[in-house]
Amino acid sequence: MQTKIPATIVTGFLGAGKTTLIRHLLENAGGRRIALIINEFGDLGVDGDILKGCGIENCTDDDVVELSNGCICCTVADDFIPTMEALLNRETPPDHIVIETSGLALPQPLVRAFHWPGLKTRVTVDGVVTVLDGPAVAAGTFAADIARVDAQRAADDGLDHETPLSELYADQVACADMIVVNKSDLLGDGTAPLVARLKSEAREGVQVVPATMGALPADVLLGRGQGAEDDISARHEVHHHHHHHDDDHPDDHGDHHHEHGHDAFESFIVDAPEVTDPAAFAVKVADVIRDHGILRLKGFASVTDKPMRLTVQAVGPRVDHYFDRPLGGDPRGARLVVIGQAGLDQAAITQALQ
Ligand SMILES: Nc1nc2c(ncn2[C@@H]2O[C@H](COP(=O)(O)OP(=O)(O)OP(=O)(O)O)[C@@H](O)[C@H]2O)c(=O)[nH]1
């Protein structure tokens, strides 16, 4: 009997630490051949670049497939399924497939795609890993917790009280087999109470684990054997497909093409001159983020007189920057993707960053 290839879905909100967790996993894969499918919100391919540049043995550029044609959960049939089939049809198929969703994806449609005839007999969902930004959850950034959202739905089927953030959060948590409370370094003593709270809210059998920089052993993340596609009903979407949005989008066809609040978010790219002082630039980025309520900002820059490329990574008010690799032939300058709730003042943000 042919055994199915396991696939792990890694989901979680923008900047929670999905790419960091996957990178750690690749570095500690214990000889497994892992293929990655990654889908990013914002067209810069930062995650793909970070993972491709990893230089990790057993992980060649061929093993990283970027799906940048919109949100993975909305283009399942067009993009995701053919990509999976291509991976499975390789002469040497991978031992394990890891799928990183965009921070705005609902994982449920992806799990459901594993029922597709071409996939069902060959691949199975080993587990859904939902990465949370521990400090953001503790601070109530996603506001409504699941119990409250459920109560609210029971009381009133109009979804209008929910923010797009709390919707995504609730759906991503509802789908999880494992919840990773990441950035526990920033939570300190707040970690244990948050883990306990999430455990009490999670479905039966869901594991809740704290992590820093997504550093979890491969054996913890992989090989769960969950077969998530067979109990999709347990992972109900707290939020259904926003048919009121579908009505606004006459091109939408079928329920794999719902909009589920993506239109509540937007992203754009800013090109700026090269950076002279990385520390001062990080302070400027933090100011712009605060002034404009930006959720996520990331990208690359050259720095005057420096041969290395600067990576800039910001999640809410926290800005990380570090040199990651030689610039090589990259043009000098800065290229950043900015992501936030719809209505960002793009002109003002662009000007401030330039
Ligand atoms: N302090 C701290 N920072 C972290 C941790 N994990 C990730 N980060 C940082 O958080 C930022 C975002 O991490 P990513 O791994 O890119 O997050 P992501 O979920 O892949 O982001 P998107 O793909 O944009 O949704 C980076 O600057 C990371 O270095 C952690 O445990 N502690």
Automatic annotation (TrEMBL):
GO terms for biological process: cobalamin biosynthetic process. Keywords: Chaperone, Hydrolase, Nucleotide-binding. SUPFAM superfamilies: Hypothetical protein YjiA, C-terminal domain, P-loop containing nucleoside triphosphate hydrolases. It catalyses: GTP + H2O = GDP + phosphate + H(+). InterPro entries: CobW, CobW-likC_sf, CobW-like_C, CobW/HypB/UreG_nucleotide-bd, P-loop_NTPase, Zinc-reg_GTPase_activator. Residues 6-197 form the CobW/HypB/UreG nucleotide-binding domain. PANTHER family: COBW DOMAIN-CONTAINING PROTEIN (PTHR13748:SF62), COBW-RELATED (PTHR13748). This is Cobalamin biosynthesis protein CobW.
